[in-house]
Amino acid sequence: MEKIRVLNSGYITLKKIHDDRDGNLIIAEGSKDIPFEIKRVYYINNLENSISVRGLHAHKNCQQVIFCINGSFTLGLDDGHQKQKILMNKDNVGVFLGKMLWHTMEDFSSGCVLMVLASDLYDESDYIRNYDDFLIRIKNGDSSF
């Protein structure tokens, strides 16, 4: 795996138990395998085509871990200083998305399924959806949300 250079991120590897006849069991426990208490789980599937782009935002406070549990996609990370793209294609390896980390998902394979574990319930006011606003907050070191 390529080293993650972007701030506020890192790999999370879950235990994977393989049974030849009965498939794989992958386990994620909040505050143990995942660096926070899990308050929300969501998944994205039935992506119509590989040209879809999802994400395109950062969170002020919410932390997440994103997994590709089927197929593959490209995860784009941007901490306001560095950008990096990571191929997501291992069902037990996720990427931690910390606070103030712009992220995108694109280049979805057929049958791709993404799963996200989040530290908070959905709150629209936690989102930064304008990239220029994100960069201004990073430049100003704004942490008073």
UniProtKB/TrEMBL annotation:
InterPro entries: QdtA_cupin_dom, RmlC-like_jellyroll, RmlC_Cupin_sf. It holds the Pfam family FdtA. This is WxcM-like protein. It comes from the Bacteria. The lineage of its organism: Bacteria, Pseudomonadati, Spirochaetota, Spirochaetia, Leptospirales. Residues 11-136 form the Sugar 3,4-ketoisomerase QdtA cupin domain.
